[in-house]
């Protein structure tokens, strides 16, 4: 019965993560209504930990702010998520139960064939308690706002251990007591669960029944969730804005769940406006290295130029932040938001071109004149073109186009967008090369250093340009 209750509760938790309400999923478990009154120690520790897991997930999603009403329902309908139970106590309760079950397993001699059933039940319950503790600890580590970079190594280890436990949990699902009843509306109902217990808390609308996932489906979902969380943790390794954007877009294509999307947002997004500006400054410097951001440029000493650049980067914070946040929304909502984001980036590109012209004129009057045309403009144009491409391609994914519209879309992608995208990358590539040659050519043996630079120089965007060229040719093939 304990195994059955644990498995069914996890199935309810997974169903909640898929967009159903808490009172129709997790809180259909009657043991969760008064967990402190439970006499059975393993069940009591597990129920309290489920409360804490629900609270952590709700906090992730609320702070990540990338959920829609169809993704997640954070309302707790008056249930208190045990704020008086600290994390250490919840973990200690699970660990005590885990140790007790472990001692029971070790103290028994090798079981006889007729005693295998009891031994397997104890082993299965021990594995579930351990998995719950590890899963809760991994979420708790992710939730710590300070020193996140240092804590992620520990989190990865905990998640890996959780993933290793899943096969045993799936294999021992049949050790749980069978459902006491089953119907078409709710699916199998385990002992200690009542799908209609919270019916009075729901709004007076048409009856809507929630079909809970099966126990096998729940463990498959948890396995995928753990893999996605491990993938989301890798965002902290992205050293530049553009590599982070690529990772967000790649993650979004796999239709991740709301938890992994929210965690990824929280791990990456800088908390203060100043840190966001510095991140964008470094992103522009890495992408095309405008003279105004070059460490050796005399433009940095010009207060007017510095003011223009700082003002422009401050204006960039909102659109670029919205682009990262957009990648955390579900695929259907992304298309709506992409249309609004296009307007923001179009306005930003106009400002970038004005800033470029102003800085170019200032640079020509300086001691070491360098061209500054189309620097910030190219940097802003690159994500703008990617947004346009994402908008068009999302129509295929969401099946919004009629068949006769396909040639128009492929024509626009082939003739314009991918060509412009490669052009912007080529321009950035050439500008970086020129900057590198100019900086390395200063001083003695200028010509020799320049020759060495030419030999050693690598094109940072060569691979990306080749990829977009292949995509352009594919669109050309579909179009023609």
Automatic annotation (TrEMBL):
The keyword Cytoplasm applies. Residues 3-34, 40-89 form the NAA35-like N-terminal domain. It holds the Pfam family TPR_NAA35. InterPro entries: NAA35-like_N, Naa35_N, TPR_NAA35. Residues 439-459 are annotated as: Disordered. It is found in: Cytoplasm. The keyword Cytoplasm applies. Its main location: cytoplasm. Residues 232-480 form the NAA35-like TPR repeats domain. Keywords: Cytoplasm. Residues 446-459 have a biased composition (Basic residues). Signal peptide: none annotated. GO terms for cellular component: NatC complex. Belongs to the MAK10 family. This is Protein MAK10 homolog. The lineage of its organism: Eukaryota, Metazoa, Ecdysozoa, Arthropoda, Hexapoda.
């Amino acid at each position: 019965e304990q195994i059955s209750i644990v498995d069914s509760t996890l199935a309810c938790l997974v169903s909640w993560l898929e967009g159903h309400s808490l009172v129709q999923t997790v809180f259909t478990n009657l043991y969760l209504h008064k967990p402190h009154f439970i006499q059975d120690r393993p069940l009591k520790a597990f129920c309290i930990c489920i409360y804490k897991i629900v609270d952590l997930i709700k906090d992730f999603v609320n702070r990540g702010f990338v959920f829609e009403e169809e993704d997640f329902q954070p309302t707790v309908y008056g249930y208190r998520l045990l704020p008086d139970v600290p994390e250490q106590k919840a973990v200690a309760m699970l660990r005590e139960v885990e140790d007790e079950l472990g001692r029971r397993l070790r103290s028994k001699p090798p079981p006889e064939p007729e005693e295998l059933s009891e031994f397997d039940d104890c082993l299965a319950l021990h594995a579930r308690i351990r998995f719950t503790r590890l899963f809760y600890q991994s979420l708790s580590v992710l939730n710590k706002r300070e020193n996140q970079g240092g804590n992620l190594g520990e989190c990865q280890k905990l998640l890996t251990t959780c993933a290793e436990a899943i096969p045993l949990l799936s294999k021992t699902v049949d050790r749980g007591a069978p459902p006491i009843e089953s119907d078409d509306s709710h699916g199998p109902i385990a002992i200690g669960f009542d799908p209609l217990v919270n019916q009075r808390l729901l709004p007076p609308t048409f009856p809507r029944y929630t079909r809970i996932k099966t126990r096998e489906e729940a463990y498959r979902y948890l396995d995928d969730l753990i893999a996605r969380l491990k993938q989301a943790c890798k965002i902290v390794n992205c050293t530049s804005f553009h590599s982070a954007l690529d990772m967000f877009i790649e993650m979004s294509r796999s239709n991740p769940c709301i938890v992994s999307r929210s965690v990824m947002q929280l791990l990456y997004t800088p908390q203060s406006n100043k840190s966001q500006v510095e991140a964008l400054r470094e992103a522009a410097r890495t992408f095309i290295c405008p003279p105004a951001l070059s460490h050796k440029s005399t433009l940095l000493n010009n207060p007017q130029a510095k003011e223009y650049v700082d003002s422009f980067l401050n204006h960039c914070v909102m659109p670029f932040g919205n682009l990262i946040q957009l990648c955390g929304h579900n695929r259907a909502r992304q298309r709506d938001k992409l249309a609004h984001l296009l307007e923001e980036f179009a306005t930003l590109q106009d400002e970038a071109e004005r800033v470029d012209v102003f800085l170019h004129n200032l640079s020509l009057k300086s001691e070491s004149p360098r061209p500054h045309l189309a620097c910030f403009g190219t940097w802003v144009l690159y994500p703008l073109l990617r947004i346009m491409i994402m908008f068009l391609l999302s129509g295929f994914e969401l099946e919004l186009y009629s068949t006769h519209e396909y040639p128009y879309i492929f024509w626009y992608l082939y003739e314009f967008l991918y060509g412009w995208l490669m052009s912007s990358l080529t321009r950035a590539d050439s500008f970086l090369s020129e900057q590198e040659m100019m900086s390395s050519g200063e001083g003695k043996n200028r010509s020799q250093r320049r020759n060495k630079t030419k030999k050693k120089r690598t094109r940072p965007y060569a691979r990306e340009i080749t990829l977009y060229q292949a995509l352009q040719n594919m669109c050309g093939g579909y179009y023609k």
